[in-house]
Design a protein that fits this description.
single chain, Alpha-Beta Plaits, SH3 type barrels, 2 domains, six-stranded antiparallel sheet, five-stranded antiparallel sheet, 15 strands
Length: 185
């Protein structure tokens, strides 16, 4: 009688594999109005790139048109390892000026911050750009289309707002929390 051995392969979540490989999100500064060009070239190299954009109606003297404009002009985000080879690959991309960081060292962006921006854009909820804040209570939204999104709770003229910040580029977005429940972290 022959023995048959069966091997069971476990599926490892993509986030776990990326963590093992040391992959992180980094902000890159682009030449003025080159965000789409940079995105195109980085995707062509097989690099995971996130270039958040919003649709806006622009008014000219003779027409109105829906255009897509970058949410953070002059910036895009890449998911790479911190190896010198990957950094050079990104920096040699046409339109890329630098990796955002301090003292020549790129600062990784927590995945939660990128996912929060993605969730906000996908929710189609109205939001406004907000000045970057370094102080305030961090909260998590409970329920609705923004369930699980974390940010800083602020009050403006009696209205509750959630500020989602991308720290290395010091940019923030603000959304009114009317109808949303929040819990402190």
């Amino acid at each position: 009688m022959n023995a048959i051995s069966i091997s069971v392969t476990e599926f490892v979540p993509v986030k776990a594999v990326e963590a093992l490989m040391g992959m992180n999100w980094y902000a890159i500064r682009t030449r003025s109005r080159h965000e789409k060009v940079v995105e195109f070239h980085l995707q062509g190299q097989g690099i995971d790139v996130f270039n958040p954009a919003i649709s806006q109606i622009r008014q000219w003297s003779d027409r109105r048109k829906m255009i897509e404009s970058p949410l953070f002009p002059g910036y895009a985000f890449v998911k790479i390892t911190a190896s010198p080879e990957e950094r050079v690959r990104v920096l040699r991309t046409p339109g890329v000026v630098e990796l955002v960081g301090r003292q020549g060292k790129a600062i990784p962006i927590p995945t939660e911050q990128i996912e929060a921006v993605r969730a906000l854009i996908a929710s189609k909820s109205p939001f406004t750009k907000h000045g970057f804040l370094q102080v305030g209570q961090r909260v998590r939204v409970r329920g609705g289309s923004l369930d699980g999104v974390e940010g800083i709770l602020v009050a403006q003229n009696g209205n509750r707002n959630l500020v989602i910040s991308v720290e290395p580029i010091q940019r923030s977005l603000s959304i009114r929390l009317d109808g949303y429940e929040v819990e402190p972290l």
